[in-house]
Write a structure and sequence with these properties.
By secondary structure, the protein is α/β, with parallel strands linked by helices. The protein is 39% helix and 13% strand. The chain has helices spanning 8-34, 54-58, 86-90, 106-117, 124-134, 136-141, 152-158, 162-172, 197-204, 215-218, 234-245, and strands at residues 97-103, 144-147, 177-178, 184-185, 208-209, 222-230, 250-258.
Length: 276
C-alpha cells in the first residue's frame, strides 16, 4: 500500500464518523418534527435549529477587521498589514493574540449568560460557530486547545465548565485536541465583578497552575486558550503567564464576546469571571 493510501483503521474511522453524522442528522430531523426549532434568543419559531431570528441578529455587534493584532479590539481606521494599537503598546498583554466573535452586549451577551448561568447548553453550537469564524487563524496556528478552568468547588456547584464546552465545540470541527486538565485553578478567589484591574490582578495571583504531569506536553506548544467572555483581561493574562512559565511557545485567546471599552470595572453583575 502506498504511503498516501488510507489504512484499514483509517477507513473504519471514516465509516464510523459518517454513520455517526447520518444518525445525528436523522435524530435532529426527528426532533424538529416533534419540537420545531426556535430562536435561541427569544424563542420565536425558526426554520432551522441552533440559530437566532432576524430581530435578535440585528442586536449582535460582531467584531470585524480592522483589529489590533494583539488585543483583537476594533480599530477606527484600516491600516495595511498587522497593526498593534496604542493600548497594546502601552500595556502589552501576557497572551500573544486575542480574538472574540462579538461585543458583550445584546443577543450575544444574552446567549453567553444563558449558557453560563442557566444551563442553556443548546447555545454552545451557535456560539462555537461564531468563535470558529472569529478565530480561524488562531485555531489553525495552535497545537493544543486549553479551556480556562473553574475552581473545583465552583465546578461542583455549576456541574460544568462553560469554557470547556466551548473548547469542545472548537475541537469538534477541527483537527485540534483539547487538554482539559493541563491548566487548573487551585485558588478560590474573590468575586471579580466590582474590582479594579489592579485588584483583579492581585486577586488572581497564584490562582492557576500547570500540573507537573502536563508540563512536558505543554513545552514548546502553541496554546489556544478558550473562555466565554474577555473583560479586563486579568484572567487570561494570569493563565498565559502560567502556561508560558511551563514552557508554552505562545498563548492565544479566543472568546465568544469581549468588552471593547477601557473601564476596569464591568458595570453588569455576573458578566465577568466570578473569581472561582
Amino acid at each position: 500500500m502506498s504511503s498516501h493510501e488510507p489504512s484499514t483503521h483509517e477507513w473504519s474511522e471514516r465509516k464510523l464518523g459518517s454513520l455517526v453524522d447520518r444518525l445525528r442528522n436523522a435524530w435532529t430531523r426527528f426532533l424538529d418534527l416533534i419540537v420545531p426549532p426556535t430562536c435561541l434568543g427569544c424563542q420565536a419559531p425558526l426554520a432551522t435549529p441552533d440559530s437566532v431570528c432576524p430581530a435578535c441578529w440585528r442586536s449582535i455587534n460582531f467584531i470585524r477587521q480592522p483589529l489590533c493584532d494583539r488585543l483583537g479590539k476594533p480599530l477606527g481606521f484600516a491600516p495595511t498589514g498587522e497593526t498593534v494599537s496604542a493600548e497594546a503598546l502601552r500595556n502589552p498583554p501576557d497572551f500573544d493574540r486575542a480574538r472574540a466573535a462579538a461585543e458583550h452586549q445584546g443577543t450575544a451577551r444574552q446567549l453567553v449568560l444563558a449558557l453560563k448561568y442557566h444551563d442553556r447548553h443548546e447555545t454552545r453550537r451557535l456560539l462555537g460557530r461564531w468563535m470558529e469564524l472569529a478565530g480561524r487563524e488562531l485555531i489553525a496556528d495552535c497545537d493544543l486547545i486549553i479551556p480556562v478552568p473553574l475552581h473545583r468547588l465552583r465546578f461542583l456547584q455549576r456541574r460544568f465548565n462553560q469554557s470547556a464546552l466551548l473548547a469542545n465545540e472548537i475541537a469538534r470541527h477541527s483537527d485540534k485536541s483539547v487538554r482539559y486538565g493541563a491548566l487548573i485553578r487551585r485558588k478560590r478567589t474573590r468575586q471579580q465583578t466590582q474590582l479594579t484591574l489592579r485588584q483583579r490582578q492581585d486577586n488572581l495571583r497564584g490562582a492557576f497552575a500547570v500540573p507537573e504531569s502536563y508540563r512536558r506536553m505543554i513545552h514548546g506548544q502553541r496554546i489556544l486558550l478558550i473562555d466565554d467572555v474577555l473583560t479586563s483581561g486579568a484572567t487570561v493574562n494570569a493563565c498565559a503567564r502560567v502556561l508560558k512559565r511551563a514552557g508554552a511557545a505562545s498563548v492565544d485567546v479566543l472568546t465568544v464576546t469581549r468588552r471593547t471599552g477601557n473601564a476596569d470595572i464591568d458595570p453588569v453583575m455576573g458578566d465577568p469571571d466570578f473569581g472561582w
